[in-house]
């Protein structure tokens, strides 16, 4: 049930002592080895010795993705390159990528955290893990891979793409666990249905999905179509990669591995902490990383802290499943809109596929939102009247959820482009 009970179920008081000790060491490491941090500390008159308790965390300056870009490629590293054994980077779809480095010890910690995560998510050493996260500069593939090997499970390093081969291997090798993005899991289910392969023919029983926000309804859809139990895993390359947190079998929020990461949820505008239960931006401080310590890293991911303890026995703090990213948040006529809200409505209503595209434009001074939605095969062959009714119901439901007027365009099944990694859900023409 646990990979490392001593840390995963550590009494809270003891955990806080360990966190403080590790925070102080991290602050020193950053101050003395990274010019960026030394300057940032000096600018506000802060010295490492000023961090005397965990409550002093708020005194520390934030770190942003832009700071990593400004110090591209290796300027944020706290160790000489001779100690760096691995380099990963973000995709860099907007501007320069962010580059992250790992010492041998960092890789060791990462494998430990991923082994914990896999066990927490329901995997054992007897599982055959089909790892369909991309291998390469992206941290997903190798992160899961090292954790699976540490656990002692059998890992198939298939990487993303080549969907028909994925399904053949899944069937022939008897894969029991699938790891990939939730949108790719859904795509796999779709292709499987086309190939006439039913979930009953597979040994698949569990899915560990992450790297993009996905709704509770999406979980139920994937669980139904693949006949599995699906959990949400969280991580980001700037912090370590996958393995920052994961859901346990309670599926009620993600446990964050508190002996390695400190988390806060702040109001992204005022930068002050928000109370548990209230949505805000997740901020993470690494506690053990050597090559790239991050202090109060602004993840831009939107979540809330979940109060209370979890019945699984882990004492780690939990964060709610992610609503979206501050980057994905669209401001349309002054209203905040997340693609995940649209996804939830579509899955709840039925008659459509959870493949959709939000197109935001501006006509005169007014922002417009168009939602393109794929209709289910069965409905598409239906009468025009049925489609008109569906469109009307969708408009009503979306308008009441989002609080703005929406144009709905129904499109034929399988016409919205599928993704093998992170799905593209928004086209914002106001920016083009
Ligand atoms: Zn739990």
Automatic annotation (TrEMBL):
Q: Which reaction(s) does its UniProt entry say it catalyses?
A: 2-phenylacetate + ATP + CoA = phenylacetyl-CoA + AMP + diphosphate
Q: What is this protein called?
A: Phenylacetate-coenzyme A ligase
Family, according to the entry, reads as follows: Belongs to the phenylacetyl-CoA ligase family.
GO BP annotations listed: phenylacetate catabolic process
Tell me the subunit arrangement.
Monomer.
Q: Which residues form the AMP-dependent synthetase/ligase domain?
A: 84-285
Organism classification: Bacteria, Bacillati, Bacillota, Clostridia, Neomoorellales
What EC number(s) would the UniProt record show? 6.2.1.30
Keyword Transport carried by entry: no
Its UniProt pathway annotation is: Aromatic compound metabolism; phenylacetate degradation
Report the function annotation for this chain: Catalyzes the activation of phenylacetic acid (PA) to phenylacetyl-CoA (PA-CoA).
UniProt keyword terms in alphabetical order: Ligase, Nucleotide-binding
Q: Which domain of life is it from?
A: Bacteria
Q: Name one GO molecular function term.
A: nucleotide binding
Q: Which CDD domains match?
A: PaaK
The answer, when asked if Aminoacyl-tRNA synthetase is one of the entry's keywords, is: no
Domain AMP-dependent ligase C-terminal residue range list: 334-430
Top enzyme class: ligase
Q: Which PANTHER family match?
A: PHENYLACETATE-COENZYME A LIGASE
């Amino acid at each position: 049930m646990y990979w490392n009970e001593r840390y995963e179920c550590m009494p809270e008081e003891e955990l806080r002592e360990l966190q403080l000790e590790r925070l102080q060491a991290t602050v020193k490491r950053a101050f003395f080895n990274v010019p960026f941090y030394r300057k940032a500390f000096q600018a506000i008159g802060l010295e490492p010795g000023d961090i005397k308790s965990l409550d002093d965390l708020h005194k520390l300056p934030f770190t942003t993705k832009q700071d990593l870009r400004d110090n591209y490629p290796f300027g944020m590293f706290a160790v000489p390159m001779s100690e760096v054994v691995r380099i990963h980077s973000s995709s860099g779809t907007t501007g320069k990528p962010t580059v992250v480095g790992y010492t041998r010890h960092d890789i060791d910690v990462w494998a430990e955290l991923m082994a914990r995560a896999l066990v927490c998510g329901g995997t054992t050493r007897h599982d055959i893990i089909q790892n369909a996260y991309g291998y390469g500069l992206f941290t997903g593939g190798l992160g899961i891979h090292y954790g699976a090997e540490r656990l002692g499970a059998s890992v198939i390093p298939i990487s993303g793409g080549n969907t028909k081969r994925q399904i053949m291997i899944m069937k022939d090798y008897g894969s029991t666990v699938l790891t990939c993005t939730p949108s790719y899991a859904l795509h796999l289910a779709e292709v499987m249905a086309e190939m006439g392969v039913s979930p009953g023919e597979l040994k698949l029983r569990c899915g560990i999905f992450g790297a993009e926000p996905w709704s509770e309804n999406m979980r139920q859809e994937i669980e139904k179509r693949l006949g599995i139990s699906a959990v949400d895993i969280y991580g980001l390359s700037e912090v370590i990669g996958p393995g920052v947190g994961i859901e346990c079998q309670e599926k009620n929020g993600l446990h964050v591995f508190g002996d390695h990461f400190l988390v806060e949820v702040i109001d992204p505008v005022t930068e002050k902490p928000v109370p548990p239960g209230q949505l805000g931006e997740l901020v993470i401080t690494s506690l053990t990383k050597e090559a790239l310590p991050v202090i109060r890293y602004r993840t831009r991911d939107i979540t809330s802290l979940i109060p209370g303890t979890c019945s699984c026995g882990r004492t780690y703090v939990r964060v709610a499943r992610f609503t979206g990213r501050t980057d994905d948040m669209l401001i349309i006529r002054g209203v905040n809109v997340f693609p995940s809200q649209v996804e939830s409505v579509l899955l709840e209503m039925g008659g459509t596929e959870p493949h959709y595209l939000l197109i935001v434009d501006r006509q005169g001074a007014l922002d417009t939102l168009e939602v393109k939605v794929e209709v289910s095969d069965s409905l598409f062959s239906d009468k025009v009247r049925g489609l008109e009714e569906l469109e009307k119901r969708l408009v009503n439901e979306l308008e009441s959820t989002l609080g703005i007027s929406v144009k709905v365009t129904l499109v034929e099944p399988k016409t919205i482009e599928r993704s093998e990694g992170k799905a593209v859900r928004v086209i914002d023409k106001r920016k083009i």
